[in-house]
Design goal:
The chain is α/β, with parallel strands linked by helices and 865 residues long. Among the domains are: 257 residues, Alpha-Beta Barrel (TIM Barrel); 220 residues, Spore Coat Polysaccharide Biosynthesis Protein SpsA, Chain A (Alpha-Beta Complex). Helices cover 51% and strands 10% of the residues. It contains 29 helices and 18 strands. Strands 1-2-3-4-5-6-7-8 form an 8-stranded parallel β-sheet. The two termini are 41 Å apart. The C terminus is likely disordered.
Amino acid sequence: MLVLLANFGAWALLNRPVTPADWNGQIRGLSFSPFQKDQDPQRGQFPSHADIDQDLARLAGWVRNVRTYSSLDGLEQVPQLAARYGLTVTAGAWLDRRNERNQQELDGLIRNARAYADIDRLIVGNEVLLRDDMSVQELIGHLRRVKRETHLPVSTAEPWHVWLEHPELVRTVSFIAVHLLPYWEGVPADQALAQVMHRYHELRRAYPDKPILIAEVGWPSAGNRTMAAEASRTRQAAFVRGFLQLAEREQWDYFLMEAYDQPWKTALEGPAGSHWGLFTAERNLKYPLTGPVYEYPEWPAQAKVALGVALLPLLGFLLRWRNIRTQGRIVFAVLIQTAASLVTWSLYLPENLELNTWAWLAWALLLPAQLLLLVVMLVNGFEFTELLWRRRLKWRAPRPAPQGTTDLPMVSLHLAICNEPPEVVKATLNSLAALDYPRFEVLVVDNNTRDPAVWRPVQAHCERLGPRFRFFTLGQWPGFKAGALNFALRETDPQAAVVGVVDSDYLVRADWLRRLAPYFQRSQVGFVQAPQDNRGWEHDRFKGMINWEYAGFFHIGMVHRDQRNAIIQHGTMTLIRRTALQGLGGWAEWCICEDAELGLRLMQEGYESVYVNEPLGYGLTPDSFTGYKRQRFRWVYGAVQILKTHWRSLLPWAQGGLSNAQRYHFIAGWLPWFGDALHLVFTCMALAWTLGLVIGPQYFGFPFAIFLLPTLGMFLFKMAHAWFLYRAKVDCSVPQRLGAALAGMALTHVIARGIIKGLFTKSTPFLRTPKAEDKPALIQGVLMAREELVMLVLLWTAALATVIGFGIDHPEAMLWVGVLLVQSSPYLAALTVSLANAFPATRPEGATATHPASLALELPARDAR
């Protein structure tokens, strides 16, 4: 109840009404353009006789006088129809660069002036000089003609500064028809009336003997910001009511801009140009002239919808997860309600605002992105909540009692190699030879290595290690790593009950098998997994970053998955029940992540997994940023292959061995990668949109803040999510935590590429992760992040162009700049990590340089973090 009430209070706070002074009188004048919502004079679409009549009928009683802008295309009917409703007319003629058309407009204006007694004044041209459609002398000539041929006061309508610049024009007209529109001058709404007063008296001082008509004055109810001027319904209401009070007090003659919204003006003036009316384009009054005014009058109903959307998930979470402490229950409940409110507000956006074509496009594109963003937030939030505030994490598989030597199952260890440095592989074999385990064999399978000089030293070393070690070289062999492992499975000793897989660069602890093999005494166990861990990173900035980035997955993500028997199997430090592996047909050779795919199939068959969160082996990290990216690309592409093949079994209603919790973790675990793909898509779209904002601001507006603020908020939430979970679950220092966050962010672009390529292709070459590479030079550090560098430069250029084009006083522009900079952060991180890779590793004083393979001779002193 507290969360629901707080949410409703937030809606109320964000939708506070304004209460300007009431206006109960009649409006002296309104600018009148009777074009309906689907009509456009630029396309030859004009209002009918009935349209004009109905529009004037609505204004009867509201206003005394209407101003028209043309005397052709049916608008010449306005004076006759206005007389029916007791309205007087200030009639206008539209002038531009079409001389023949101008003569027709003037003829029509003169004809109407002579025919209708309800026309009180004439306005020849509207902002003709402002648009530079003709010279002052040409305009004066038209004015003199109308004055000669009619008996009415005659003027032309221009902004205040045009009148101050052209006293010869003032001498020609009967009165000054001035436009006072502080919005277009970028004046803040709370200073707009003072600006109107100032410009009016400035004209009065300049021309004390000339009558002044404020021919246009107003404020738009929607549209882009103009410098410090912001368009909104409440600002328009405050301006209109305040101006009516001011005009009454000062006894001004005026025409409010305008009666009805005119969508066709968007093409000329941008989004704001179509929202100056007191009535919408559908002819609905936007707000009353008395009482409070709400920006979004329907907000209470929408807030109730948001509460309803959140209610069932809230109750489900609070009733089921009673083992989470109160703080955690409040945090996740707030996240649920926040997501529901953002989704509701976004869905109602077209109803709350009048969207033009580009705004509709932006809404249609950004809404799905926001939904995915919020889902990712809830997924991360659930992990955050459960790991930090669960009263007691489950230990699903208690450690089995020690078994006698004769009770331990025989283990067949499989080591697939391809172009691996021989010294690295030999070190791994030495660690396997030192295993404290009675019954095991080691099968080394080399495939697709072209140079025999690479594999022959490994073969010779296997021979020296004795009959437990068997070596096979297959030459060109299909199926990538899975093909080699399937060959090893066929060559496995028939007595082996367990198959183990270890990478070619791993040093295993002597008690690895004795520690994990006893779990197979339970027949339900299909595979047992220990975390990957690394060595040789302690004095290398780059390797230290990626070491701790890996640690987050194994000590946070895998621990959370293990709560529901949903861990991801990874292809090293893993033990698998042989009968289960053979029963499933072995490793999937169509998938470049054969390990994770096998784990999913084992779970589909009802087997359980065991995760022992204790480092029992140590491998080498990639030596270059390129290798790091290749490794993550393979994981991502393989995940998409798995999802495309097994998606039916991941549906909530699917039949099979997977529990709903397992389905959730497999989908939720890979979902953030799809968010990274969306990041790339929307980065490209943001660049294109910025180009539109800069070269076509009349067509392009800044995307809605409701979509931009969650983007910034999600960025901060992800940082906080990683920071606090690392602090609680990963034993590393603050600099190491920051380095891990930087390394993870640096992979955003390559993850996006992996997702997109995986969605649109079926296979890709197996990308092995090279080890023991030479350190790159500085220029290579830049080149390894060249794609990210290009994106970084483009985003920063877009941000700079936005600042130059709109200024730092434009809040929407600054929000957009903030989004562009946030979008650039992964690319900056990639460049930073790649450059860190270019600097030489630091070594303790007195240490000598060693080849990475020599590190394999030493295991880290610690056995757990």
